[in-house]
Amino acid sequence: MPFNSIFAWIIKKRMHQIDLFRKYPAEVQNDVFEKLVSQGAQTVYGRKFDLDKVSSYQEFKNAVPLTDYEELKPWIDRVMAGEQGLLWPSETKWFAKSSGTTSSKSKLIPVTKESLEGCHYKGGKDLLALYHNNHENRKLFTGKHLIIGGSAEINVNPLSHDSYSGDLSAIIVKNLPWWAEIRRTPAKEIALLTEWEDKIERMARSTIKEDVKIIAGVPSWTMVLSNRILDITGKSNLKEVWPNLEMFMHGGVNFEPYREQFKKLIPDDSMNYVETYNASEGFFGIQDLVDVDHMLLMLDYGIFFEFIPMSEFNGKESKTVLSIEDVELNVNYALVISTNGGLWRYIIGDTLRFTCILPFRFKITGRVKSFINTFGEELIVENAELAIAEACGKTNAQIREFTVGPVYMDNREKGAHEWAIEFVQYPDEMDRFNLVLDEKLREINSDYDAKRYHDLILEKPIIKAVPRETFDGWLKQNGKLGGQNKIPRLANDRIVLEQILQIAEGSKLTNEV
Asked: With bands split at pLDDT 50, 70 and 90, how would you rate the model's confidence at 83?
């Protein structure tokens, strides 16, 4: 049977399965729940919380506490050291690096065979199935798929030579099934390079003459690679390089700030953009409708979902936790997951709201804490506060308030973070303040460090010192002047920052570094 006929049969079969959880989400999730509990009962973690006695969701909630990374880290450390059967019954030897926490530069998330095959790879197959179902007569498998991974490095863990850590993209590339590997570009030895300048250069030169039909990656890195390809070829846009290019699958950050730039890079109305929600912890969502920017929650990937209304969110102490049967439209929820990778009632830190029920479609709304993730840097408030404290300490400065927003990439211009800071005492040297701030952020946040590497995506921070009472002016202007109201520290847009700068501009005293 020809490959295209086999692929068409696989798509038809999988679309039937997707339709099942579109129509019967509670039943599908209950099946996932029962399988997870059965597997979990065989683990040390499961025995600690008597999973063998759990027969309902309510009993599960009563028996197993909510967790976060700090709670599970001692367990994960033991698995990394070689102990097995702690969080998941099958062998666990891969660990995906994720964004840092307040106490460590990177999180290390267990990746099992079941989570690779039944979640991450299944998500990739479903994305192609949904795409082909929405766009007839597409021939993606007659061309190459350009996969732009992260800082792809595999490390042998010092405590156990049988376990490995690295970016999820590196783990996926190292373990790809044959049907994906034969169409992927660039070559594995390039995809797994760690030096980004060399990697971008070699990716650009090795893919120029390929028949690329799909690009998959984070928008920021894709822009860097695309601009280098245009430099080398002298072409004005990517369609002149790859005439058959038809789809960009993206995720990791909000695409809106990049949309206009991609229209310039790919000036073709037939170009398709598909959003995914794929994290180190699991593959959660795929945009299943054309020209609609919400995603379908994928319910049969070995992940059991729970939801905490943000109006009642109190971290691990949250009392109101809902299954998918009880969620409502347009409510902001913190996402909780139990997975076939060995995470149990894990608060991932992301927030979402449902735009549709039956089927369950959603939009990512942010993080449970303030953040900036415009370029994939996942900067959290704790990072910013630690860095600014370090900069103040080393330059004899004191601050009263600050807020930070992104400077978006514009054509060939790089991105940056712009800091509006109200000083009580100015730094001895403003340039040194900026340097220390940047160095500390790079030290404590591996994702920020990767984006700052050789200024490839993020340039150094822009510091704007605003005059006294600027932030009080903003609070007053917004009817929030009072002890209980706080300045938003970080934002994924420039709304608050622009308002602050406008107030400062009125005094004509803003200083920029």
From this structure: very high
